[in-house]
């Protein structure tokens, strides 16, 4: 029997909220291009990923069959199974807190608005966003994102760690109220 080393092709994708696996076979040790052009290796794997993890997920082969055309020839080989990896990269997202300004009116200025650069994955939604900032008197303060949570749309499962989030603070500014001061006209008799 001829040795053949087979592994699943490694997969690296940006987080998109869907399940992914790799069942494409890679033959690692046969350089015989004529043989490679005539055989097909079919594999089934057990690895599946659908969100970011610190380390890649191991993808092991659970079933391997080798074909020459339609004929299965698996028994003609000593199959050595190696593992592949599945890696989900964080999805980039920028969250920008709103900014506002107004002329002093003795009422506090707050703004609970934000914009996104990048997109939330199609099966996800924002469940919580807390923006803090308030100013009453003339001056300028930050409008800061304090909490931001993304969950799967149909569950309460948090997927915020699958995003590479950049937070950009906004500003709140109160400017001086313009006032006009006119001297009052006075008439007096000179003494």
Could you explain the architecture of this structure?
By secondary structure, this protein is mainly beta. It is 2% helix and 50% strand. It has one helix and 16 strands. It has one helix at 33-36; strands spanning 2-8, 11-14, 25-27, 39-45, 57-59, 61-68, 71-72, 77-81, 84-89, 91-97, 100-103, 114-117, 124-132, 139-152, 163-168, 170-175. It is rod-shaped and about 130 Å long. The model has no long low-confidence stretch (mean pLDDT 93).
Topology readout:
Layout: E1 2-8, E2 11-14, E3 25-27, H1 33-36, E4 39-45, E5 57-59, E6 61-68, E7 71-72, E8 77-81, E9 84-89, E10 91-97, E11 100-103, E12 114-117, E13 124-132, E14 139-152, E15 163-168, E16 170-175
Q: Keywords for this structure?
A:
mainly beta, 191 residues, three-stranded mixed beta sheet, single chain, four-stranded mixed beta sheet
Number of helices: 1
In quaternary terms, these chains amount to single chain
Termini separation comes to: 131 Å
What global shape is seen?
rod-shaped
User: Major sheet: size, sense and barrel closure?
Assistant: 4 strands, mixed
Question: Which series of helices and strands comes N to C?
Answer: EEEHEEEEEEEEEEEEE
Question: What's this model, at a glance?
Answer:
The chain has 191 residues and is mostly beta strands.
């Amino acid at each position: 029997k001829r040795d053949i080393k087979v592994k699943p092709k490694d997969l690296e994708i940006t987080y998109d909220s869907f399940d992914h696996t790799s069942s494409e076979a890679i033959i690692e040790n046969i350089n015989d291009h004529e043989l490679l052009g005539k055989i097909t290796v079919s594999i089934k794997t057990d690895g599946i990923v659908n969100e970011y993890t610190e380390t890649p997920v191991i993808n092991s082969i659970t079933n391997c069959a080798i074909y020459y055309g339609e004929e299965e020839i698996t028994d003609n080989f000593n199959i050595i199974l190696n593992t592949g990896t599945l890696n989900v990269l964080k999805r980039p997202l920028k969250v920008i807190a709103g900014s506002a300004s107004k002329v002093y009116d003795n009422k506090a200025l707050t703004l609970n608005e934000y914009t996104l650069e990048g997109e939330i994955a199609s099966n996800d939604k924002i469940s919580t966003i807390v923006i803090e900032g308030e100013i009453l008197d003339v001056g300028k303060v930050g409008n800061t994102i304090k909490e931001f949570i993304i969950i799967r749309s149909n569950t309460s499962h948090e997927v915020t760690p699958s995003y590479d989030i950049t937070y950009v603070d906004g500003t709140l500014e109160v400017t001086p109220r313009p006032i006009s001061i006119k001297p009052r006209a006075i008439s007096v008799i000179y003494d």
